[in-house]
From TrEMBL:
It comes from Alkalithermobacter paradoxus. This is 8-amino-7-ketopelargonate synthase. One of its GO terms (biological process) is biotin biosynthetic process. The lineage of its organism: Bacteria, Bacillati, Bacillota, Clostridia, Peptostreptococcales. Catalyzes the decarboxylative condensation of pimeloyl-[acyl-carrier protein] and L-alanine to produce 8-amino-7-oxononanoate (AON), [acyl-carrier protein], and carbon dioxide. Its cofactor is pyridoxal 5'-phosphate.
Amino acid sequence: MKSIHDMEFLKEKINQLKESGLYKEVVTLEGPNESECIINGKKVINLSSNNYLGFSNHPRLKKAAIEAVEKYGAGAGAVRPIVGNMRIHDELEELLAKFKREEAVLVFQSGFNCNAGTIQAVTEDGDLIISDELNHASIIDGARLSKAKKTTFKHSDMEDLERILKENKNKHNRMLIITDGVFSMDGDIAKLPQIVELAEKYGAMTYVDDAHSSGVLGESGRGTVDYFDLHGRVDFTIGTLSKAIGVVGGYVAGKKVTIDWLINRGRPFLFSTALPPAAVGACIEAINMLMESTEYTDRLWNNAKYFKGKLGKLGFNTGQSETPITPIIIGDESKAKEFSNRLFEKGVFVSPIVFPTVPKGTGRVRCMVTAGHSYEQLDKVVNIMEEVGKEMNII
Ligand code: PMP
């Protein structure tokens, strides 16, 4: 007899995912995340990581992590409001506040946690959250956890945003506009100056998630607020420490009072143990490296321009990307997967991205060029993409 514990309902759902090309498989890397890595015993050029600057296996970060372990141990012990901050947590937050040119910063265990904790803490019943329709899942979930009303505006459509602001002015206690700084699956940059202007016109607060702009855009990778010179005009700036910074963690930068409130009401901060010292030590080293020199961000942008230039000539649909994120949009999910599989067979690892990460019918592979790639590797990738693209009638 069938039992509920056989999880038949999940098996059925998984079969449906498989039939529609939406089932995900996760590969295993035999070693560090580098521009070249070993997967299933095969050496492949890696275009799937967010390790923009090649920091995740950098000797300086590893040394800083080891030193932090020796000084502070392997774990943080408990949630910070109970066991206290370790000095190294304070140091990272002070450094990030200086880097972001904001009054204060609070670090969470991940960028996801940061959005999940911050949005619900700074909005309440009677407020309205206005979110770009392509915002990251952690923003969507953060908004879901809030008691505020929620609505979305068409992607980067300032007329639609203004329509919503106009219609809702004086109907809510407060309005909060939320946008990704750089859209993670398309690589386009938010129209932050216009968003800030509209927010100021209609008295709304602003919130930008700089996960893919930290370490990438602005002076020394300070993010979109710096890139557009909007210091002091964005209320909440989120960053991750997991992508260009190469480690793990997320943070919110803003006014001291905001950080004070999040220490008291940011649930992941209150109820989940802090980042381990090794991660914090490595993050401090990474931020110091960014402040010391633009060597890595320059190399990232050079590589991105080089790769995009070559790929663009082949006729792939690379969307509206303005940053190193380079999607090749294929549409059909199964075809996107097939493209990725064939590239892998020829030595290029570039993951397929399908619903729910991107809207249905916009399946793609997302090429992430990093500072760690060589021109030789990028040439090889482009040649293989041309070959497979032609085989599959994509170009
Ligand atoms: N925000 C955006 C825009 C992201 O792309 C991501 C990562 N995919 C996150 C937040 C979550 O960051 P983390 O991986 O540090 O949890």
